[in-house]
Amino acid sequence: MSAARPGILLVLDGWGHAEPGEANALTAADTPCLDRLLGTPLAVLAEASGTAVGLLPGTVGNSEIGHIVIGAGRPVPYDSVLVEERISSGALRSDETLSAALTGAARTGGSLHLIGLSSDGMIHANVHHLRELLHIAALFAVPEVRIHAITDGRDVADGTAATYLETVEGYAAEAGIGTIATVTGRGYALDKSGDLSLTERAARAIADGAGHLIGEPKDALATTGRGEEWVEPSVVTGGDGAPVGPVRDGDVVLFTNFRSDRIQQLADHLHRELAARGVTFLSLAQYDTAAAIPALVHRADAGGGLAARLAEMGLRSVRIAEAEKFEHVTYYLNGREAAVAPVEEHIRISDATPPDYRARPEMSIGQVTEAVTSAARRDDVPLVVANLANIDVVGHTGDHAATVRAAEHTDRAVEALCRVASETGRWVLLVGDHGNAEKMLTESGGVRRPYGGHTTNPVPAVLVPAEGQRVGRPQGAATLADIAPSVLSLLGVGPAPAMTGRALW
Ligand SMILES: O=C(O)[C@@H](CO)OP(=O)(O)O
Ligand SMILES: [Mn+2]
Ligand SMILES: [Mn+2]
């Protein structure tokens, strides 16, 4: 353990590692500061995807599990793994909550509505889970199942939604039950910025069958000029031209995303309207909704990590991020603990209207940098934790040039913060939470497409020691589980008992 020094933990969101190449926006960018840091012996590559962080093997990393594991100091089984286990073991078929709801629907003639992201991006959902859910609905003789498909274009390449809709229709045909009733882009249905005008468009299509009327589900894909994330809320109509599946009193609604943060806004919006009409609400995994929606699969405990240790030792930390990543440096880093410990201060840099990030790759990084600087200048704050969102958020646009600029803005911010750290006797630990911008192109069937999704690549983790601070070189393989023990060691504190990671420096 090194002598205690205050520090700054900087999460560069979406900062993955890959060899230089046409797809790599990070190596294409002019980033002299980051390049220098990555060239020091104190830089290491850390695993941030798959089983190293509690995901299924070969699954790309994501911000939630990335920040959960950075905070926990150990891999934590993610909701996708827990859902997968309940489905593949067949246990979901005998789930009491689900059985009661479906038995009720079969008895009263109610419909089951399945609402979720229709892709296998494995960040928010897995469309293949519908196969089991439709099979279970058939087992319970539910009279009809309406599928409200949400198109992706963010976790998976654009131009793939038609394939996923076909997959859903194939599972419905195989189960002998299920019709796609609405098709809506995730930009509307999975908004998390609080823009309820977007949520309302999705809710009107799902709840009332009000939206762009279409004959076939795939007809919805022609409604967008800006990628499948923005397919207009569309309603499939039957031969008589009437919508095939609005929610009616006494129906059952089951949300099929295993990740909460983006679907919870729609879930709460629909619950406010429909629960009073005797509609039963369920979610496949546990959600952080205002409404109490029974979950079929419960979360693993992610507590007992960095936040608990800092509170135990009375070490104050200031957490800083833009709105897009604020929950990540607070709620998720704290192990999905909503209570704010007395030794924590949270600063949310809120951007009035989320612009088209391609036009503003700098986002609000200037304000974030200012907030980190003023916290670093305080001597009652041993730890400042911040997330620089640009590389991931702009990376999700799939726009290579904009992402290069986002990386360059990030580089200038890191350079400024390293200078502040040096002036204030602090170390700086930089780490990615998963990859994104190092892969901006994908290829399938010989066709190359822009790709804004995450990767399974390792992420850089690099320490800039405080003036005169003696540290060791990282040895052996590293994962995100090693970050919390490293931060605690640099603060002169031992790891929390539950931590399986180790101090890298
Ligand atoms: O934007 C999101 O919701 C996901 C991608 O779907 O990214 P992240 O895990 O970085 O939040
Ligand atoms: Mn992220
Ligand atoms: Mn992301």
TrEMBL record:
CDD domains: iPGM
Binding-site positions, Mn(2+) 2: 13, 63, 433-434
GO molecular function terms listed in the Swiss-Prot or TrEMBL record: manganese ion binding; phosphoglycerate mutase activity
Domain BPG-independent PGAM N-terminal: 83-288
Family: Belongs to the BPG-independent phosphoglycerate mutase family.
InterPro entries, sorted: Alkaline_phosphatase_core_sf, BPG-indep_PGM_N, Metalloenzyme, PGAM_B_sf, Pgm_bpd_ind
Taxonomic placement: Bacteria, Bacillati, Actinomycetota, Actinomycetes, Kitasatosporales
Active site: 63 (phosphoserine intermediate)
Domain Metalloenzyme: 6-493
Stated name of the protein: 2,3-bisphosphoglycerate-independent phosphoglycerate mutase
Residues that bind Mn(2+) 1: 392, 396, 454
Underlying gene: gpmI
Root EC class: isomerase
Coiled-coil stretches: none
